[in-house]
User: Which sequence fits this backbone?
């Protein structure tokens, strides 16, 4: 059987682990084909995936992030394989569902991967824990620096998270980094409470704090919160690429292994089109 693998949206380090283990366990009985679509031209490329390094976890990924096929090109693009493993984020899931899962005779499996943990039906996603660790490490380094400097005003340092972080992600980052977070859907009373918490966090011994928000809501965070506080404010932008991490955390390594086991079961048992969902009691397969 010819099994195609394609990655949409983002490529956190744990995906490399999945691709490597699929190659290790599916061949030689099956042919594993990496699929990539060139941005702009829409040209589809297919390559046999082989282990090309003695240190697969340290080498470059065998697959790159693919562009999406044209809306009317999904069937044609995937017709080169017998079955397909589609690895992607929330946007990829929507497109897979709309253009492939319900409109093709090709069996396919969607695997949730998102540093933002924003995929409906999953309590977590591959890449999320690694992203949290990467961002929090940066926050703690900044906090160590600003705590060593004294200013006339308390210092508030903003972290603007690029991409589409969920409110849950902003909250998790702020909790792990001992900071505060702003979400654009906050009501006025929630904003007032946030300002109160920031002000009360400043003491004679603690003269700095951090505020986490999405890049899309940076202007609103400054207008609604920062401009109403008597603080010295600086901020930094956390690029989405910074969140990927060169090496997955232990939690993401475990999740990658669990997802791979389910993918292998799906391929070997020739199950119907569906998706994997990360749930509190393990990985679940959900029929399309």
Assistant:
């Amino acid at each position: 059987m010819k099994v195609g693998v394609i990655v949409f949206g983002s490529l956190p380090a744990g995906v490399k682990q999945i691709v490597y283990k699929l190659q290790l366990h599916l061949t030689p009985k099956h042919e594993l084909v990496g699929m990539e679509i060139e941005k702009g031209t829409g040209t589809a490329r297919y390559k046999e995936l082989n282990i090309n390094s003695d240190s697969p976890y340290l080498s470059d990924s065998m697959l790159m992030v693919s562009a999406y096929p044209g809306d009317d090109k999904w069937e044609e693009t995937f017709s080169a394989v017998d079955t397909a493993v589609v690895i992607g984020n929330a946007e990829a899931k929507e497109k897979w569902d709309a253009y492939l899962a319900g409109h093709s005779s090709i069996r396919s499996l969607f695997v949730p991967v998102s540093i933002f943990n924003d995929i409906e039906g999953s309590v977590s996603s591959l890449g999320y824990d690694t992203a949290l660790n990467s961002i929090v490490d940066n926050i703690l380094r900044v906090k160590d620096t600003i705590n060593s400097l004294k200013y006339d005003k308390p210092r508030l340092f903003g972290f603007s998270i690029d991409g589409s972080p969920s409110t849950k992600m902003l909250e998790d980052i702020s909790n792990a980094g001992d900071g505060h977070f702003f979400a654009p859907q906050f009501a006025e009373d929630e904003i007032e409470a946030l300002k109160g918490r920031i002000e009360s966090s400043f003491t004679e011994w603690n003269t700095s704090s951090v505020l986490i928000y999405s890049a899309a809501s940076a202007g609103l965070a400054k207008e609604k919160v920062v401009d109403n506080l008597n603080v010295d404010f600086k901020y930094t932008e956390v690029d989405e690429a910074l969140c990927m991490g060169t090496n997955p955390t232990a939690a993401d390594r475990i999740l990658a292994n669990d997802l791979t086991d389910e993918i292998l079961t799906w391929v070997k048992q020739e199950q119907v089109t569906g998706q994997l969902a990360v749930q509190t009691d393990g990985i679940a397969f959900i029929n399309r």
Summary: The first strand starts at residue 2 and ends at 7. The two ends are 22 Å apart (CA to CA). Residues 128-147 form the longest helix (20 residues).
